[in-house]
Design a protein that fits this description.
635 residues, alpha+beta, two-stranded antiparallel sheet, 72% helix
């Protein structure tokens, strides 16, 4: 819960690193080393244009060190450039302010400043600065849940960056990194991602202090994890984070540590205590409340799950202290950026209101002589229009009443016909299922019972046959239970009432009745479902679907093999996958599922698929390479 409370702040920092990468590359051994030189240059300036230029460089430098300091210099640049009509300074200031508001999760405000900067840079013909503005707008739309608009600005920025001249190739390189960042997990773009990373690495050799270089190295570490070299990748990430701190880039260091958490999705679990505590220390030194809250929440949840009360109390108190701080107006010298925006908008509104008032006064004086005549003419026209519209309205009202009555009768007739058709289809389908799906298991039980009556079987054979009867009876009972649940929902009218449900307990509970068969087959269960993964579903129905699919998986798996249970998320939905090595039995099972007369699981699969459709999801059962049975549902 605590991580959910603070995660939105950190997401904004991470998602807008795409613009942070595009800040000017300052040639030095570190960011902090540049600051004294820029301050000396500022003191030596003798004209406003040079002063604004150096102020902009200082603000851009602070964007990767301290957000509030960057905001302070951006305000100064905006004020001076506005007085001097310096379009270049105004564009740079609006870009910095757009980045700042985006990092503070005020996306609507961030879009306004970035769009102003985009228009100014278009007027100046500065393509490199246009790329920066477009990236801010892209980040705002992506974070605020507008993917279509975000795509438009991303591809526009990428197209412009690829046409920049050679002296601006650092911008091209960082846009290539942004492309890799966006499509790294898209399996259909694996080759293109590798190519853009190679091209970016070749360009960035000329810019050893570029932030983009850290991300090229980080993606290379991700590839090491995929190749099974997780430990080497973890140490490489720590090296990159240390180097980022040495160069004065705390936000980049934060992002490096954050990538270790994502390695869990790739199958490697790093020492969470180590990187979370180091990340919090960097966040604390950077004086960023958003980063502090995020890592404090991570540490709090970790120590609470490991029952370490002293650390839980300590981190909990720190979280409450930071959360209680006024985000916009406080006594810790942070920028009152909302006040600044509101005052600026108020000045613009006042200026606009003054101009409008002047125009209205001039118009009033010009029309004063003709007003009386116009009023008389209007009154006559209004009277005629009222008479005309009154008669037309009465006619329309009578016609509309007749049409509505006819439509209601048609709708009711259609509903009655649909209900009768649905009931007839349901009755025929149910009779067909009951007549076919339970014949095979009952015949099997009768045949085994006849063998027991002969009295010629040995004790191990009797025990084996009794187990077969027990398994067949249990499977038949489970199938009947699914049918009864399905019938109740069909007859009463299913109303889907979704609730947030933890996925892991549901799967563990579904495995319980299958433990004996799992032991008999010597199956190894590999459950990769995370403890905090949740779905929006009807818990009881979800439980029935898991039981049915696990029965099919255990029955089909070859003895001594694996039962792999995993999940992945895409486009706001969660997919749960069950995979077993069934060998030749997999193809046979899929064929029998098409013919319900030969397999008891056919009806269960049909019911499970119906359940998933009612919960706005789907179910897939198919054969992978080499006889692997793959079943997955998405919800």
């Amino acid at each position: 819960m605590i991580k959910a409370f603070v995660r939105q702040h950190y997401i904004a920092i991470v998602m807008t690193v795409a613009w942070l990468l595009l800040l000017p590359v300052l040639q030095s051994r570190g960011q902090a080393a540049v600051l004294p030189r820029l301050q000396r240059d500022l003191a030596q300036q003798r004209d406003s244009a040079g002063y604004v230029s150096v102020l902009g460089k200082i603000g851009a430098l602070y964007a990767s060190i301290n957000l509030d300091s960057s905001f302070y210099y951006a305000r100064q640049v905006l004020e001076i450039a506005g007085r001097q009509k310096n379009l270049k300074g105004l564009a740079d200031a609006n870009n910095m302010l757009g980045w700042y508001y985006t990092a503070k999760t005020d996306y609507n405000v961030g879009i306004q400043y970035a769009y102003k900067a985009l228009l100014l840079n278009e007027q100046l013909g500065d393509s490199a600065q246009m790329v920066r503005s477009l990236n801010i707008i892209y980040g705002c739309y992506k974070n605020s849940g507008h993917p279509a608009e975000a795509n438009n600005y991303f591809y526009r920025a990428f197209h412009i960056a690829n046409r920049l001249p050679p002296d601006k190739d650092s911008i091209t390189a960082t846009m290539l990194v942004n492309y890799a960042w966006r499509f790294f997990n898209d399996s259909t773009r694996t080759d293109s991602v590798r190519l853009v990373l190679q091209r970016a690495a070749a360009i960035l050799k000329k810019y050893p202090d570029s932030r983009a270089g850290f991300y090229v190295a980080a993606f290379e570490a991700d590839l090491l994890v995929r190749a099974g070299k997780g430990k080497a990748a973890e140490e490489r990430i720590y090296t990159l984070a240390d180097l980022a701190q040495q160069k004065g880039m705390p936000y980049v260091a934060m992002d490096m540590y954050g990538r270790l958490y994502d390695y869990q999705r790739l199958g490697y679990f790093a020492d969470s205590t180590r990187y979370q505590e180091q990340a919090y220390e960097v966040a604390r030194q950077s004086a960023s409340m958003e980063l502090n809250l995020y890592w404090l929440g991570r540490l709090y949840d970790y120590h609470r799950s490991h029952q370490q009360p002293d650390k839980v109390v300590y981190y909990g108190n720190e979280i409450m202290r930071l959360a209680a701080m006024d985000r916009y107006h406080n006594n810790h010298h942070e920028a009152a950026y909302i006040d600044f925006f509101l005052k600026e908008k108020a000045l613009q509104a006042l200026s606009l209101a003054t101009r409008i008032q002047q125009q209205e006064l001039e118009k009033e004086l010009a029309e004063k002589k003709n007003r009386a005549l116009i009023v008389k003419g209007l009154l006559m026209i209004i009277i005629l229009l009222i008479s005309l519209f009154g008669s037309r309205y009465l006619h329309y009202r009578r016609w509309k009443q007749q049409e509505n009555a006819l439509e209601l009768s048609y709708v009711q007739l259609a509903k009655n016909n649909a209900a009768l058709t649905e009931n007839d289809v349901f009755k025929n389908r149910l009779i067909s299922m009951l007549a076919t799906d339970f014949r095979t298991p009952l015949h099997h039980i009768i045949a085994v019972a006849d063998q027991l009556k002969t009295g010629t079987l040995t004790q191990p054979e009797v025990v084996s046959l009794l187990k077969q009867i027990g398994n067949a009876s249990r499977k038949t009972l489970d199938a009947f239970n699914n049918i009864l649940k399905w019938l109740r929902l069909q007859l009463s009218g299913f109303v889907y009432q979704p609730v947030t449900t933890e996925l892991l307990p549901v799967i563990v509970e579904a495995l319980e009745p299958l433990q004996e068969e799992i032991r008999d087959k010597q199956l190894t269960i590999v459950n990769r479902v995370g403890p905090r993964i949740t779905v929006i579903a009807d818990k009881e129905i979800l439980q029935l679907v898991n039981v049915q699919l696990l029965q099919v998986a255990v029955s089909t798996a070859r003895p001594g093999t694996l039962l792999l249970i995993s999940t992945y998320g895409e486009k706001g939905k969660v997919t749960v996958r069950f995979m077993v090595d069934g060998g030749a039995a997999t193809g046979k099972l899929l064929e029998e599922l098409k013919d319900k007369e030969h397999n008891i699981f056919a009806l269960g699969i049909i019911i499970s698929r119906d359940f998933m459709h009612k919960m706005k999801g789907g179910l897939v059962v198919e054969e992978e390479d080499n006889g692997f049975l793959m079943m997955e549902y998405t919800i």
